[in-house]
Design brief:
301 residues; alpha/beta; Rossmann fold; 7-stranded parallel sheet; two-stranded parallel ribbon; 11 helices; globular
Length: 301
Amino acid sequence: MDRRVLVTGASGFIGRRLVVALAARGVPVRCLVRSPVQFPVPVEIVQGDLLEPLTLQPALAGVDTVYYLVHSMAGGRTEFERRDREAAENLRRAAEQAGVRRVIYLGGLGETGAGLSGHLASRLEVASILKQGSYATTFLRAAIIYGAGGASFEMIRALVLHLPVMITPRWVSTRCQPIAVGDVIRYLVGCFFEEATAGETFDIGGPEILSYREMMERFAALAGRRLAIVPVPVLTPRLSSYWVGLITPVKPSIAIPLIEGLASEVICRENRIRELIPFPLTPFNEAVMQALEEEKTLQKS
């Protein structure tokens, strides 16, 4: 295997898992990180920043495929949109100059339109920028990703464990299609080996469509907790983000764009990728149990 891969966002929630999975398949992996970090597998580490273009050419030298896993959420909508746009444009230019053959981008599900949250709209804009490159772009659109360390999982876990009675806004009735982090990694790795995914956009989600209320109620049952949910019409996403910031480890600066996105229905409109990369999808309850077990392991280590 001489098709070298560059993973941006390699130290993040998805990136770390992807690096391990690629290395296990014998793929030569180079990790782009802003600060020195250790990985549990032998990989090449290059320090750089997508917002600093001069650091990208050394990172991209000899690279066949780039995984783009970077997305800003903090700093207010105008600020994170600007950073996302600038980072994507820098990568596109540098990848073209380096002769990169493919870019695989993990973004978010969500319909287009004026009502789309800033968080989801920015992810769509990044996809649009990357697709303008001379390489082939694969765009995976994911709903909520469940796994230990993920912001959505940590937010719901903390709410369920600390608030037996929860006053919530209308977004608890919004439908989504949560997907286990392990399944996301399978799709990301599968795209590298399946050339038919090059230049295509795919929706990825789990086997069930649930409301956020159903997810929290199921989570509570699995964790052995009682939970009463009382929806109210006057609780805005911004107010919601403040009490989420008080109760959970998710910072308000991240909770605001995250919760604003919860007002948008995020379900798969097509399932073509299941034919190209087939495997049994993980049910929601099993994904929660896997995340809880992983969390226990991380706490012991």
